[in-house]
Amino acid sequence: MNAKALVREDLAHIWHPCTQMKDHETLPLLPIKSGEGIYLFDFDNNAYIDGVSSWWVNLFGHCHPYINQKIKEQIDTLEHVIFAGFTHEPIVRLSQRLCALSPQGLEKCFYADNGSSAIEVALKMSFQYFKNRGEKRPFFVSLQNSYHGETIGALAVGDVKLYKEVFEDILLQTLQAPVPKDQSEEAALEAALALEAIFQEHRGKIAAFIIEPLVQCAGGMHMYHPLYIKRARTLCDAYDIHLIADEIAVGFGRTGKMFACEHAGVSPDFMTLSKGLTGGYLPLSVVLTTQNVYDAFYCDYSEFKAFLHSHSYTGNPLACSAANATLDIFENESILEKNREKIAFMASKLDAFQQLKNVRSIRQMGMIAVVELDEYPIDFRVNLKIFTYALRHGVILRPLGNVVYFMPPYVITCKEIETMMNVAYEAILSLNTL
Ligand SMILES: *Cc1c(COP(=O)(O)O)cnc(C)c1O
Fold first, then answer.
1. Which atom belonging to ligand 1 lies closest to the Cα atom of 283?
2. Contact indicator for 346, 332 with CB cutoff of 8 Å
3. What's the CA gap between 157 and 127, in Å, rounded?
4. Rounded CA gap, 22 and 399, in Å?
5. Mean confidence (pLDDT) of the chain
6. Is residue 330 lining ligand 1, measured as CB closer than 6 Å?
7. Ligand 1 contact, 148 CB (< 6 A)
8. Which residue ranges make up each domain of the chain?
């Protein structure tokens, strides 16, 4: 099929995620033919820099020769096996490595196949942990402006209106604590006080507090100080509440450290991982938890305390082989160290945006750089304008409302960072003349 036929047949049969399909009457869908490194290619061989890592999943570029090879080796050995009652080498190796890499105390891995499902697992485990101990704790606390996925349970702990509002009537009751309003220590301390008030008011009724450590990605790349996580850990300990760190977006080096919790020196009771876990290749997610949580489910069958949660594709060996290959690259190529130069370079380029008159603020956390524009009316569709301009100039950017951000694969060079950020600069500048 050529590109034109693909678009026609796509629109005839497919409903795309996170999309008002009517937009495609005027905004052409872009068929991608191939990928290599940070570039995606269309059917006319135009190259596009993948500035959003294909929805934050891609770490080492598209069609990475080493990851490709490892998946090919695995597919000729074992493609999949039921994961209840059976195991396989890729998942055992992966679990050893994840436990060794993750914050201290996380010793057990429970697998699923996407981020939202990992959130469901963590919530259910936390709830049942207390139930198995003879307590009923119906509440979860999350942060205002948080995003944890779009299945019903994950939506309930989220707080982005765009996704949640329609379904409000059928969601679990949850409590939202104020998120620190900026990256200062004062804001962190102020928000921690508000959190304690909630913990106090609902003492004995809260199972878990869930956070996106340091960066609320879908919530407009909102950032806060690690001190807040430290305080939250202390409060969770004091009130006997689980801390769930949702590192689905910020894990695997995005914030400059392997896991964002490391900035605070904190170990959560649950850590959820997905997105970068397979380098952006295959769907896989995991919940890491403690021996203590595991032990609360460990008993004779007749006590009915087992954790009953399963997905058909739990622990898929192909996805695990991609994850192992991803961890190999982290180890063999000192990725976190090499990213430091790129992080500093992004910071230097980011400064220039401050001069633009429609820029409200800039911020950065590791490999995530953000330019927040002034508010525009909804029907101005500022994000669509930036997206379209950048695409025409060979860069994929997908602003969240008025928040333009860069989250490129780690194999990007400083020169390519410059190209990507220059296009964004011009795109923002062009808003003034529209
Ligand atoms: C993307 C995301 C999720 C949901 O993951 P899916 O694989 O899209 O279901 C959950 N939490 C955070 C922080 C995310 O960024």
1. 7
2. no
3. 14
4. 19
5. 97
6. no
7. yes
8. 31-63+334-433, 68-332
Which numbered atom of ligand 1 lies nearest the CA of 146?
Answer: 13
Ligand 1 atom showing the smallest separation from residue 285 Cα: 7
Instruction: Please tell me if the CB atom of residue 90 comes closer than 6 angstroms to any atom of ligand 1.
Output: no
- pLDDT above 70: residue 434: no
Give the residue carrying structure tokens 């820099």.
Answer: 49
Predicted confidence (pLDDT) per residue in 415-433, tens digit: 999 999 999 999 999 998 6
pLDDT tens digits, 16-34:
999 999 999 999 999 999 9
Which of 47-51, 91-95, 430-434 is the least confident region? 430-434
What's domain 31-63+334-433's superfamily in CATH?
A: Aspartate Aminotransferase, domain 1 (3.90.1150.10)
Dist. CA 434 → ligand 1 center (Å): 34
DSSP secondary structure of 13-34? H---TT--GGGGGTS----EEE
What architecture (CATH level 2) is domain 68-332?
A: 3-Layer(aba) Sandwich (3.40)
Q: Is 216 in the pocket of ligand 1 (CB under 6 A)?
A: no
- Tens digit of each residue's pLDDT (9 = 90 or more) over 322-333: 999 999 999 999
> Which atom of ligand 1 is closest in space to residue 249's alpha carbon?
15
Q: Which of 52, 116, 71 is nearest to 323 (CA)?
A: 71
Residue with CA at minimum distance from ligand 1 atom 12: 148
- The pLDDT value given to residue 432: 82
The pTM is what? 0.98
Tell whether ligand 1 has an atom less than 6 A from the beta carbon of residue 149: yes
